[in-house]
Amino acid sequence: MRVKHTITFEQAAERMLADMEAKKKVKAATLRATRSRLNAINEVLGSVRLEKISGADVRAYIEARLAAGKSGGTVRWEYQAIRAVIKSIVDKNLNCVYPIQWETKKLELPSTEPADDRTKETPQSVIETAVAAQIDPYSQLIAFLAFTGCRLGEAVACRIETANPDVTHWDVDMSLVRVRTAIDVGAEHAAKTKKSAKRIVDLCAEANDYLKAYVGARRDGFLFSVDGQPLERNRLYRAAAKLCGPYHGLRRARITNLYSRMETPAEEQIIKFWVGHESHESTQTERYSKLWQDAAWRREFAERAGIGFSLASPTVAEPAISEQQEAVAVSA
Prior knowledge:
Oligomer: single chain
Shape: elongated
Strand content: 5-15%
CATH architecture of the largest domain: Orthogonal Bundle
Structural class: alpha+beta
Number of domains: 2
């Protein structure tokens, strides 16, 4: 099909994003994540005209991303994004101007099965070593993730108390964390799901006292920060690589500890509530039962479950470490 004007991949991607935003087809957080990942694709294919993109180009892109250490799930998502951008350009009859002609099987797309280290819980010894290292604020963040089971973005968004009830914050007097928001791709948004975005994580006394010692005289701002700003993804991942491995392993470790401390099957509802699993009311029986709303029972379980690992005395987070100190601490 002849076309009068050509368009680059980056130009087509911007059009697709603008259309998604205008029609409000996706959540704001999904739009930000899509834009972020398209930025990575644009670095390689952004200046290439759509009619010039071949299957060989796409396979070369896939191979390069895998060689750079990206997961199979990430690479497959990016491949689908490439297809979506190309197919988004249509004529007045809604026919694709640039039909995709390559053979998908020949691209050798990777498996979406996560790597072994992404499906395992972080060992207790690794958590204790990372916490004892007292690399502020990363050691304290690791401890927080391991004794709350929060997702990384939720922890990064956590404030020290606050007058705003609509953001994630630690309530020192009530010994709990109210999860409302998460920070990812440089922006704050509602936590992952409807249920996880409006929940409470009860803290045992040991965990609450640990946070008190860490924040010292601070009474506001982000719980974990550098120069008052929330932690950035690249710095977080460098610290994880050095101290504890993938952060999600800390969440798995917390859930494992909670299940090991259960005394009745009904307490599974409390676990699901704390970690924000969408299924905490998955059955008809659970929809009738509201055990997870019983604050006294939750607190008793929190104390019984405890931390699950040994806590070293935290470094008081004042002042925050300088970028130079941090670079030394978390350098590869």
